[in-house]
Amino acid sequence: GSPVTVAAVDLGAASGRVMTGVAGDGVLGLSEAARFANLPVRAGGTLHWDILRLYRGVLDGLRAAGPVESIGVDSWAVDYGLLDADGRLLGNPVHYRDARTDGVPDQVLGQIPAERLYATTGLQLQPFNTIFQLAAARDSAQLAAAKTLLLIPDLLGYWLTGEIGAERTNASTTQLLDVQSGQWSAELATALGLPAGLLPPIRDPGGLIGPVRPEAARDIGYTAPVTAVGSHDTASAVVGVPAEGENFAYISCGTWSLVGVELPAPVLTADSRRANFTNEAGVDGTVRYLRNVMGLWLLQESLRAWGDPDLGDLLRQAAGVPGLRAVVDAEDAVFLPPGDMPSRIAEQCVRLGQRPPESPAETVRCILDSLALAHRAAVLDAQRLSGRAVDVVHVVGGGARNELLCQLTADACDLPVLAGPVEATALGNVLVQARAVGGGSAGLADLRHLIRTTHTVRRYEPQGDADRWRAAAGRL
Ligand code: LRH
């Protein structure tokens, strides 16, 4: 149909952006209306998201982006705000990297065996999953006062529209959703002692959440429908992968690297559970079968520790450092919390019997080699565990800009890498809205075709020596 103009709100762990998107037959354009930092705040011993500040950024961004025909919101997963019986927010949402979940997964697994939890939810074990955050808050006054739990995009959607719900792709990351029925697991909610009705009804991407309410319309300068998108940023990113056919792996590479394949049905085998592969809900009933790799967080936290030197310079120097001298396990939970990252990396190098990096450039090289190695392991495991063969690896998100990382990933995987678009998440958000508003019947393949014909990707051929990467993997 004729092109529609929509606004995509995409909040990442490090920054948020509001993009204006125009999409229609043969047309797909994106422009940035606003970008703002997302700075967590430690207060009273807890690491919080500054949610009102983010909402301010969203409102100002929507004003700059508009008027538009629809608004869609996505963000990082698992975190939530609690509303009281009057619909007011009870405190600031807690950051998934907060230490409150330390030791909690083991307690919960004492009550619900890991096999049972995986069979029910199909989800990877991560200490920050919503289920463990809620278990950590089990006896809190805040949870006792709570009437409704809203994941971050659903909370922003609620402020924009007054409507309550839980968008499916993000709900699937809580580890409280039943992977078979697609509804909240009553068994798990009961086991955790959650107040009845805390978890709101599930809604699907593409549905109408509601019109922007008058209060918010005054702030943004117009009204528009808010449309549910793949509100888990990774779900929107996977929609935005410009793949052809089905024999591809994707790496959504930002603060995290989410590495996997798209499947029609979940894989719930014991091997899959032991490999900590997750079956997250994708748009249009797909399964995002993937593993979390620590991602550019390792680099971001190192830069912060060094006082934020110029990244371009460091990457150029890192390209000159001999490869694979020292590697770490980029899936190890020791790297999860904020703090001195270079020291943690050096310590792990020593523990694994390697000479630790001695300069920032050597540390950056170690990080990129380690990420490429973890990408390789996840791409291999995804194929082995799912039976889906892969002949190309798509890298989308900010990491697609990192030439050294893309080349190393191609070398490590011994497969061509197609890098870009950088803004795959916003594109996936825009496309799902445009399809809903335009009333089209396009499938994911059609949406991806539109991205391929309107955006360029950069191709990296594998050049490395596959045996060296295999040997390096053996060091971990
Ligand atoms: C990436 C992401 C990822 C989750 C993590 C909490 O932004 O949504 O998919 O595992 O944040």
Automatic annotation (TrEMBL):
SUPFAM superfamilies xref list: Actin-like ATPase domain
Pfam families: FGGY_C, FGGY_N
Limits of the Carbohydrate kinase FGGY C-terminal domain: 249-436
Domain Carbohydrate kinase FGGY N-terminal: start-end pairs: 68-240
Gene3D superfamilies according to UniProt: 3.30.420.40
Entry superkingdom: Bacteria
EC numbers on record: 2.7.1.-
Protein name, per record: Rhamnulokinase family protein
Organism per entry: Hamadaea flava
Lineage: Bacteria, Bacillati, Actinomycetota, Actinomycetes, Micromonosporales
